[in-house]
Amino acid sequence: MFDSFYLVIGRIIVYFFLITVVTTVFIAIFVIYSFRTGTFPFPNVVLSGILVLEGSIKALFRLFKVDDSIVDNVVIRLRNKVSLKRFESLPFEKKAIFLPQCLRSVDCPAKLSPEGIQCINCGRCNIGGAKKKLESIGYMVFVVPGSSFIKRMMLKYKPEAILGVGCISEVKDGQDLCHRFGVPAVGIQLDTDGCISTALDWDVFYNTAKAYHTAAKADKIASESSH
Predict the structure, then answer these.
(1) Taking each helix axis from N to C terminus, what angle separates 54-63 and 69-89, rounded to the nearest 10 degrees?
(2) Which of 105, 134, 174, 224 has its CA 20 to 30 A from that of 62?
(3) How many CA atoms lie within 13 A of 33 on its CB side?
(4) pLDDT at 225 over 70
(5) Which helix (H) or strand (E) holds 189?
(6) Are 162 and 153 in contact (CB under 8 A)?
(7) Whole-number mean pLDDT of the chain?
(8) Quick one: residue 118, left, alpha or beta (phi over 0 = left, psi -120 to 50 = alpha)?
(9) Between the CA of residue 97 and those of 23, 49, 162, 177, 196, what are the distances in Å?
(10) Containing H/E element for 144?
(11) Is the predicted pLDDT of residue 218 greater than 90, yes or no?
(12) Going by C-beta distance under 8 Å and a sequence separation of 6 or more, which residues neighbour residue 68?
């Protein structure tokens, strides 16, 4: 009797192992395909699979000498695809934007406060102009001194959607945090990583925030009202 029981348990373990291996390989192939083509069918299903098997998929990538950061890249893009519709449907006043302090100039005179880096719009980098434009249309904008800051601002201001900028690991960690809070988050990766004077494609950023048209319209109304 016990022999039959252990035989059944052994078969279940073997089948489970085989299913896990096959699923891991399948998702790994999908990750590479999506990374190369920018195509993301069934994003919710695939995203769930990647998150469950993330460690195994990355181990498989390392085994075959493939850069496992591709997995994080695809996770970010999948989460963007899942979150974008909800993000765009909300009014600007209910959304927050988090910019990394590494976008600042090396000569930035701004000081740290409980609300993050307090930009004084000195003109030495693009943050001041971006912050002014975005806040004029309703966004909450923060310059982030560290990852723990995001959680504090989420708890304090309770945004219903977030747009975050950072290196690949920061964006992924930020989206993980937002997911735990049930807040849709769209992430934009920096063009260059580092601790200081990093680069961002500001056109992509403003288009994602839907800030170009709205800010131009607001400026036009303000101009007309002043005459």
Answers:
(1) 140
(2) 174
(3) 10
(4) no
(5) strand 185-189
(6) no
(7) 88
(8) beta
(9) 36, 28, 6, 15, 20
(10) strand 140-144
(11) no
(12) 57, 58, 61, 62
Q: Residue 219 has what pLDDT?
A: 43
For residue 72, what are its two tokens? 């994080």
Taking the CA atoms of 13, 14, 20 and 21 in sequence, report the sign of the dihedral they define.
Answer: positive
Containing H/E element for 164?
strand 161-166
- Assess if CATH 3.30.60 describes domain 90-225: no
Amino acid found at 224: E
Q: To which residue do tokens 């348990």 refer?
A: 9
Q: Quick: pLDDT tens for 137-154.
A: 999 999 998 778 999 999
Domain ranges of the chain: 2-80, 90-225
| Rounded Cα distance, 17 and 34, in Å | 25
Q: What is the DSSP letter of 97?
A: E
Residue range 25-78, pLDDT digits in tens: 999 999 999 999 988 888 898 999 999 999 999 999 999 999 999 999 999 999
Residues of 13-24 as b/e, b for ≥16 C-beta within 10 angstroms? eeeeeeeeeeeb
Lookup: tokens for 20: 């896990």
- Residue 135 contacts by C-beta under 8 Å, 6 or more apart in sequence? 141
Contact residues for 127 (Cβ-Cβ < 8 A; gap 6+): 99, 103, 104, 119, 143
Pairing type for strands 116-118 and 111-113 reads antiparallel
